[in-house]
Amino acid sequence: MSTSVHRFSQQSGPSTNLAFTTHHNITRYPFTIMDPSSLQAQINSLITFVSSHCSSGKGLGTTSSAIYDTAWLSMIQKPSNSGHFLFPQCFTYILRHQLRSTGGWVSYATPIDGILNTAAALLALKRHSLFPSHQPPTQLDELDWPLPSRISHASTALQSMLSDWDVASTDQVGFELLVTRLLLLLEESGVTGLSSFPGSATLRALHDAKLAKLPANYVYKARSTLHHSLEALTGYIDFSKVGHLKEENGSMLASPASTAAYLLGLAEKGLWDDESEGYLRGVVERERFEGECGDGDGGQKGDGGVPCAWPTETFEVTWVVTTLAEAGVKFGESWSSEGRAIRGYLERGWERDGGLFSFFPGGLVDADDTARAIMALRHLGNTKVGVEPLIRAFEAKDHFRTYEGERNPSISANCNVLTCLLMMDDPTIYSRQIVKTAKFLCQQVHTNSVREKWHINQLYWMMLLSQSFAALFDSMAANPSLEASVFQLAPELLQEQIPMTSLHVLTKVLGSQGLDGSWANGIAEVTAYGNLTLSWLSHLPWIQQLGRMHGVNFIAASIESGKAFLEAHRQDWKKGQYLWIEKVTYASPVLCEAYCLAAAVVPVPDFHFRASYSSVVDANGRHHVQLVQKSTTNVDSLFVSEGLLKGVLKAGQLISLTPLFRNLAPRLLRVAEMQACYALDFLQRKRKELGIFPETDVHATQGADEKEYMAFIPLTWTASNALGVQREATGGHGHGGLQSNYVLQEMMVLSMLNYQVDEYMETAVERDFLGFYNGSKGSLEAVRQVIDEVFDEFDPLGMGGRKRRSSIWGDADLHTPTNLKIIRSTLSRYVGHILLHPAVRGAPERVQKRLASEVKTFLLAHVRHAEDNIQFAAATSTPCTGQLNHDRQEEETGLPSPISESEPSSNPSSPEPPSKRRRLSSSASASASLQAQQPSKKIKIFTPTDSRTFYSWVRTTSADHTSCPFSFTFYTCLLSHNNGNGNNNTDNLFNKDAKTSYVAEAMVRSLASLCRMYNDYGSITRDAGEGNLNSVNFAEFHIAGGGTCSSQGLLGEEESRVKEELMWIAEYERRGLERSMGELEGLVGTEEMEKVRLFLDVTDLYGQIYVVRDIGVGAGVGAGARAGVRRG
């Protein structure tokens, strides 16, 4: 494991400008604007190419050849079982591409690619081995690797692939049916050892569920997506009954493999279909194009390789036209003939299928190709086409279906639908569909539910998402009525959801850009996606505001770097990569070139000019975005207010001084700060909605401190998330790196509540209630009993089971003091929010019990900490005689001594404000008063009555008091809930095995202890002034110094010495933390560990802030910045 070690140097503090002097530099090529004439010539050539195939009638498809489909063609015999194979060149292709290193076939981009390729090819080997005299002639030296040996090696390779396959994470076209059927066919052919592998049960369940949705005669009645994968139904259906459903070109939904299976099924019955044979011959003999890959050696016409779908002309033509047009390429007079050819082709398709489209002419229609075709037609000048057929055919309850019977929605298809809707002359008519689709897209990203089914690289859907958001805001700028309608239907969509989603995407895009300006380790096509994503994001008001901050346009700089990389690698523009998903992944040189050209010509944004929006200030001083056109609504609050931004930037400056964040790219911190501003609005609203803690004069006195901590909370999460993205990019492991906004926001809420409960326990409980009774044993027991009662409410979670104790106030609750009842109800709301959270309720029961126990331990630790403070204060002050008598009486009765009823302010049930009641001498005001009255020096060494050592204290009471242990368990519930997309998910870190649970708990305990010591390191002076117990008050720190310290705090040299000791112990604890992290990564894997690391970073950050706050006083870290972080 590679661990990040963040250590403090005590020899010198950080410089005041450190936050803005470290940079994540990007290698800059000598940047020159690409030759416009050269770009124009290449664009002309591409448009001419696609238009020529629109009028030729021969079909177009530049996608790469696939071993899988080629293997199916290689098995066709005419007649059946004759040994006369119809396409011997396909079998030669299979032989040529078997890997000598493993015996299997290539996995283009995903594990399922290799499984399908190898399984189908192995089946072909077995079929051909039955006819050894019919082996195809070859110019290669395949004969030195005879078929029996090939079959043996292929079988072993397939077993290995299946053993390593994560079935649950796979989502490619019909895989559950395809793999299951291939394995059965292989078993029938004599291949053994394939029926039992780790994911076999999951695969079988998916297979059965899929078939259960299909009526018995469904496949014979009408075309469906199932006809694209008929090979999965070999042995299940009568192929002689599906011929009437084939396409005009003789194919089964343009699938070579499905069509081959259809012919195989007919041949077994002594039947044949000449049209289907003609289709397959056309695929084998299709025209090949420059840049078409998949063969490893360039691929030539008639070499035997076939793609997973053919033709794909509607798909490729519409994607080329729309991609170029949206980047600014105008289809005007210069392309009159080409434009007419493409437009005519699409208009014929519009008429033929009633305004709907497939990926090839006459195929099964889908929302994705329909939306793109409508957009292409409008770019080509046909503004009469509308979206009514699209809406009627594909609109669902909360999104748009790609096609009938779709298992999981496609985010890219919904992005294209949204952009298409916004292209209409009056998009206001479709406001409800626009809002519905935009909310669906935001929700998919918010919960990390995106499972893009048509592309393997997330920058693809991020590009389309950013484009649809840009289209929305550009359309609102041009159509005030649309803006008013959208705000009326869903104001939160524009004020929070789209900003948070787009900033989430911006973090990923900026953070994953390589030092050479590229994305995906130098893939030109993906680099084009990255550049186009940034270009579309720059249309959004808050991104424009971000681009103008700090005088550095880092978004434009990233785009320029991407353009420079593309210019330097122009030879790769026609080299498609395996990025697109079908049954197996495929590449398209035409699409690759189109995206690279679009990224090359798209303008670099200039954030000094804002064409569509202007900023205004309302009566409350808050900045708003207002459309230049007169708006009909007054809720355009889309810019972040300067005051809010200033507070978050101050927090960001302090964060950047910590070792953990010193090397975070400033541009990522800037985005995290902007995201934190929107999250802060969410937090403030959530705080009011929850209403867990009373808004009393205690909160009112917090003032600036409260604003400071509220600014810190969201930023610690957004900045740590950005750090994970940067770590992923620089580490190259390709896992984790960006946690969902759902997890971030839920943890922000918990962090806020933990701050509030910490404050509440210190004031309402420790200062006011315990202070009223001078910290008597009876009052301490009363608070502990209240905590017991709170958890008795949640007995169904397994926390009860014990007999309820009698109240010290008597059995009748009427005698319980009012303020104690308030404490009980307040803590009940707090505990209920945690234990009844949907993510917790969906966790395994043992995890729920663990969490409940840890939350209870956390609250009891507050009581124990208060008790320690009382004991510590009593040992360092001389109480008055009355106080001593009061304590003696309490010790004798075990109950709080009665207060004279002649003092109305002494009634514990009194509604008078806490500030009028007596408080503990350990409170800040009382402590300061005592110190002023007792100038004589006292040794402030804490001697626990129960013989606890510093080690046992910091590992128990102190660590529990930080909230770290239970917060981590809550975090694991969020992760498993999020991964399961809201379903009951048992894949929790504490529900795996004993080893994982033990190491995870040890890791968190080390983290909590470490952060407490960092906390105390930075709070020695404050704790001394307030009379709070600090780590350095334990006797172990004064052995060497003879136990000399004063009531005003530690003396100069002595303070330096104990702080040095405390830091040494903290770094010792860090080494233990790092070891636990390494062990845990070995148990759960890198991807899971990256998710865990986010929590570790946030928690570690709070401890580091305390240290920086202490050593940064001389470096200009202001008191306001230091006030924003509380203990625990």
UniProtKB/TrEMBL annotation:
Which InterPro entries does this UniProt record tie to the protein?
Terpene_synthase-like, Terpenoid_cyclase/PrenylTrfase
Signal peptide positions on this chain: none
* A GO term for molecular function: magnesium ion binding
Domain of life the protein comes from: Eukaryota
A Gene Ontology biological process noted in the UniProt record is: diterpenoid biosynthetic process
Positions of region (Disordered) = 878-939
Instruction: Write out the biased-composition intervals (Low complexity).
Output: 895-909, 921-936
Cited PANTHER family: (E,E)-GERANYLLINALOOL SYNTHASE (PTHR31739:SF25), ENT-COPALYL DIPHOSPHATE SYNTHASE, CHLOROPLASTIC (PTHR31739)
* Family recorded in the similarity comment: Belongs to the terpene synthase family.
Full protein name: Ent-kaurene synthase
Question: Which organism is this entry from?
Answer: Pseudoneurospora amorphoporcata
